[in-house]
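hi!! sorry for the late reply, been swamped w classes. u asked for the two structures so here they r. pasted raw, havent cleaned anything up. first the sequence of the first protein and right below it the C-alpha cells
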Amino acid sequence: MSNFCGLDVGTMNLVSAKLNNDEAVDIKKLRNIFLEVDKDAAEIMDLSGISHTVIDDAMFFIAEDAYNFANILGKEASRPMSNGMISTKEIDSVDILAVMVKELIGTSNGGRCCYSIPADPIDNEMNVIYHQNVFGRIINELGFQAEAINEATAIVYTECEESNFSGIGISFGAGMTNVALVYKAIPTTVFSIARGGDWIDLNTANSTGSISNRVTLLKENSFSLNNHRSGKKKDRKIKEALVYYYHDLINYTIKSIVRSLENTAIELPESLPVIISGGTSMVDGFVEMVRQVIEQYEFPFEVSEIRHAGNPLTAVAEGCLIRALKYQN
C-alpha cells in the first residue's frame, strides 16, 4: 500500500497522502519555502532539529524553519514556486523542491505517485509544460511512476463520491486559483486564474506600506473576514485591505467560471455542488463570502450546495491518492 501516494504541489505548501500498513491515510506537509543562510555561522548551531540542505556549498533552511528564521531575522524568505509554478527567479528552486519531495514521499521501487498540476491560466501566457515535466522527473527518479492530474479535479475526487464524482472544485491556492467542472469523474472544463493568496498579500502590502511576510503572518494568526476592525491601527489598515482583495479575488473567480460555462458546448447536468478548497480559503468567513458572491450571478444549472472541503489543506493530496490507487492490481 505504501507504494501508492498522492502529492499536492502547492506554492505555499507541499502535501503528501500515503496509505500506511493499517490502510489509514498518513498526511505530511511542508511549507514550500527556503532561506539561504551563512554556512559558516550555521554550522556552529545545533542543526539536528532544523530542516536544512547543502547545495553547491551553500546552506539553506527549508520549510517551516526557513519561515520562522526569516521572520526572526526580518528577511524575505525565498519561494521555489511562484504563481503556481516553479519559480524562474530562484536558481536553486528545482534542487530545493527535489529535497522536499523526497522528504515527503520517500523512495519506491515501481510504486505510483499522482501529483497535482495547475491548468493553464486564462489570464496569463504561462503554461505548465516545464513545471509538469520537472516534477514528473523528480518523482520518477525516486522510483515511482509519476502521473499528473489537475489540482481542482483532485478535490472533486476527494469530496464528491456521493454525487458520483460530479461537481465544481475550486482550489484557492497561494499562487493560483484552479477550477474544474467534473462530471462522473471526467474533467470537462478546467482552467486556472493567475491570482491567489500571494496576489492578495502582495497587493495588500503595496497598498498599506507593509511587506508580504508581515501580511501573511497577520492573515494566518489573527484575521477574519467577518471581524477586521480589531487590533492596532496599522493592523486594522492591513486587515481592511485584505477584505477588499479577498472579495476581488472571489468575484473575479466566479465571474470567470460563469463566462466559461456560457461558452461551453457541453450539456450540463441539472445541479452540481461547488466545493471550496485550498490554503487561501482557510481564513474565517471565506466560504460565506463565496456564497454571497455566487448569489449575484446566474449559473446554467442549480448550485446544489456550496461547502468547504473536509480538510482544505489536504483535499488535493487525498484526491491524488485516490487516483493513484486506481492502479492497484
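now the second protein. again sequence first, C-alpha cells right under
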Amino acid sequence: MAILNIENQIISRLKSKITDLKIEGFPENPAEYRLLHSKGAVLVRFQGASYSKPEQYSFIQQAGTLDFNLILMIKGLRDKTGAYNYIDSIISALTGFAPTGCSKIYLSKV
C-alpha cells in the first residue's frame, strides 16, 4: 500500500467527518505555509514506520506499522470551536477506520 494513498484516505476520512476545518497534507515547505482558513486546519503527514523482526529468513515477511502525524492548527482550547473539541472529533473519525489494504487505525499518542 502506497504511503501517499493511505495519507489521502486519512485526509478524505477527516474531510467527511470534520467539515468546518481545512484538512490537507502537510506542506512541502512548512516555513512558507500560511493558515488562511478562518477556523483552522488539520495537517496530515507520514511520520515513519516500524517493522517486526522476520519470523524466518528464507522468505522475508514482516508486519509493519505506519505512523502518521496530525497537526491541529486552531485558535483556542476549551470552547466549542477550540482544540479540545476537535481533538475528540479527530479521534472519533479515525479510530477503527481502515484504509484500503490496511488494518484499522488506532491512536498511539494524543
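hope this helps!! also noticed smth abt the second:
The chain is about 25% helix and 25% strand.
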